Amino acid sequence: MAAEGVIGVLGNLLVCFVILRVKFLHSMTNYLLVNLAVADMLLCLQEFFLYLMYSDISLLDFVPTSVGGRELYCRLLGSDFLAWALVYASAYNLCVVTLERYVAIVHPLQYERKLTATRMKSLIALIWVISFLFSSPYLFTIESSTDPDQACSKLKDHHQEFQMLLKVFTFFMGYLLPITLMSLAYYKIQVTLKRQAKALNLRHARAAAYDLVIARQRLVSMLMIVLGALIILWTPVYTAILVCAYPLHKGLISFCDSDTYEFIVEFMDFFHYFNSVINPIIYELKYKKFRKGVKVAFCSCVKRKWNNRVDIEMVPK
Prior knowledge:
- The chain is mostly helical and 317 residues long.
- It has one domain (2-312): Up-down Bundle (Rhopdopsin 7-helix transmembrane proteins).
- The protein is 74% helix and 2% strand.
- The chain has helices at 2-21, 28-53, 67-78, 81-106, 111-114, 117-135, 160-203, 207-243, 259-286, 288-298, 300-307; strands at residues 142-144, 152-154.
- The chain has a two-stranded antiparallel ribbon.
- The chain is elongated.
């Protein structure tokens, strides 16, 4: 998990660096991808520190000894509050990327009026606030321990009904809602793009207009791959969360309290975090303009060549 965290941090840092450095990548869509990369990078960084907490070089040795410091440590880190906040941020920032493409393609005449820079900044800020609010119940699932050899302790059985509701809430708000909204939006986008391409073919439109539709299709296809990867990598862990949401002391699903289940959950957590690692790889493989941006950012000779072509290549391909 340490290697996964480091690779994820470096990959998403690369996305931020390339998009912010290369001028022909300065577009609303790409800025939103930067915001998504920041959420994924922080999530991978959190995963790395989580590994250190339970490794031989344990961060638990650095837990504050004061009651207030230990309580703060347990509530923010030990409870997974920060991890879930970043998971929410990743999912909903991808929703914002989808919203931007949806308005640009399905309602292009309203794009400039609806998606102003000020509104998008406010929306992004709102997404981050909502992400931390949605994860705030995790603050109440753990507390500092009175045992000097243990930093934190989970709240006991009389709070299991609360934890059951929290797991159901996490499944619907962190997984089902964003995936449903994005799936419906991409379906509508694909229908619109196919209709536009067919209309341009019938009218024998100029190549530039048809190329614009093709470029949009390629970008949307790349974003749909990002969504597909999220669904594939997140579904197992969220399914486990929902299946084992019922209080264990009721004894209905004894498997959820077994060592085998704990091992499977750790395995699924690896894929859950891997979603934040794979996005930069998808950009490199499927986003032609991002690949060109990487060359421009790291090769001065290619940069000089592309500086003369910035004005004619404004559409992501």
